[in-house]
Automatic annotation (TrEMBL):
Sorted UniProt keywords: DNA-binding, Transcription, Transcription regulation
Record-linked SUPFAM superfamilies: Winged helix' DNA-binding domain (SSF46785)
Top-level taxon: Bacteria
Domain HTH hxlR-type per the UniProt entry, residue ranges: 13-117
Keyword match Transferase: no
Protein's recorded name: Winged helix-turn-helix transcriptional regulator
Keyword Transcription on entry: yes
InterPro entries: HTH_HxlR, WH-like_DNA-bd_sf, WH_DNA-bd_sf
Phylogenetic classification of the source organism: Bacteria, Pseudomonadati, Bacteroidota, Flavobacteriia, Flavobacteriales
Length: 120
């Protein structure tokens, strides 16, 4: 009887897991955040370098996304007291850990695409 009770018991995802997924999606959601993060995985970049590397992103959108990533503790902005002023962007330690998330997304995406193409 207890086996039947266990089978019928509804398992719930822990609330902190749902919150963690929402937090992650809030930080990396959007068309441009992951490309920006991917570009910064290869080192420190200036604004123009990021814009050239990503392509098709407007300066206004790049600035907005960098500010959001900075507010979320993923990107750090360093201003140098030079003439003209030099500004560089790099990933924080937290930002560097997104590589594992990105690798998992790529792996899942490749497998999913393969399955969908086979079916379609």
């Amino acid at each position: 009887m207890s086996d039947l009770k266990e089978l019928l018991e509804v398992k719930k995802c822990p609330r902190q897991y749902v919150l963690a997924v929402n937090d992650t999606l809030n930080v990396i959601s959007g068309k441009w955040k992951m490309p920006i993060i991917a570009s910064l995985l290869y080192g420190i970049h200036r604004f123009k370098d990021l814009q050239e590397n990503i392509g098709k992103i407007t300066p206004r959108m790049l600035s907005k996304e960098l500010k959001e990533l900075e507010l979320n503790g993923v990107v750090e902005r360093k201003v140098f007291n030079t003439t003209p002023v030099r500004i560089e962007y790099h990933l924080t330690e937290s930002g560097k850990k997104i590589l594992a998330v990105m690798d998992s997304m790529i792996e899942w995406g490749l497998e999913h695409r393969e399955r969908v193409v086979e079916v379609g």
